[in-house]
Amino acid sequence: MSISSLKFGTSGLRGLALELEGQAARRYVAAFLRHVQGLGQLGGGKVFIGRDFRPSSPAIAADCAAAIGLFGLEAVDCGGVPTPALALHAMAAGCCAIMITGSHIPRIGMG
């Protein structure tokens, strides 16, 4: 049994990119969507996905899109965009958003 580096906090899900790809991303997106649904805030049936330009981000975004589709919502790939731009776009459309960004890379050597 391996120990995962994945952690959830105020900045969302964090961990090694390889641990985020696949089932982990899909599970967390499904949990997020169930929570938002419980709040009655799924909006217009779309979920906007943004990402940074790291090599791992497109694969993680694809996993998020798969989970969104399984939930019966439309995943909208917004490509590489700044987090505030994604948030503004989603809020203006009354929809949810998921941002894949450098927060999924642990910080080492800080101090």
What's a concise summary of this model?
The chain has 111 residues and is an alpha/beta fold. It has four helices and five strands.
Task: Characterise this structure.
The chain is α/β, with parallel strands linked by helices and 111 residues long. It has one domain (12-104): Alpha-D-Glucose-1,6-Bisphosphate, subunit A, domain 3 (Alpha-D-Glucose-1,6-Bisphosphate, Chain A, domain 3, 3-Layer(aba) Sandwich), CATH 3.40.120. Helices cover 41% and strands 22% of the residues. The protein contains four helices and five strands; from the N terminus they run ββααβαβαβ. The chain has helices spanning 17-20, 23-38, 57-70, 83-93; strands spanning 7-9, 12-14, 46-51, 74-80, 96-100. It has a three-stranded parallel beta sheet with strand order 4-3-5, sandwiched between helices. β1 (7-9) and β2 form a beta hairpin. α2 packs across α3 (57-70). The mean pLDDT is 84.
How is this fold's topology laid out?
Blueprint: E1 7-9, E2 12-14, H1 17-20, H2 23-38, E3 46-51, H3 57-70, E4 74-80, H4 83-93, E5 96-100
Parallel strand pairs: 3-4, 3-5
Antiparallel strand pairs: 1-2
Helix pairs in contact: 2-3
Fourth-tier CATH superfamily name: Alpha-D-Glucose-1,6-Bisphosphate, subunit A, domain 3
CATH class identity: Alpha Beta
CATH architecture: 3-Layer(aba) Sandwich
Mean pLDDT, nearest integer? 84
The tally of helices reads 4
Question: Count the strands?
Answer: 5
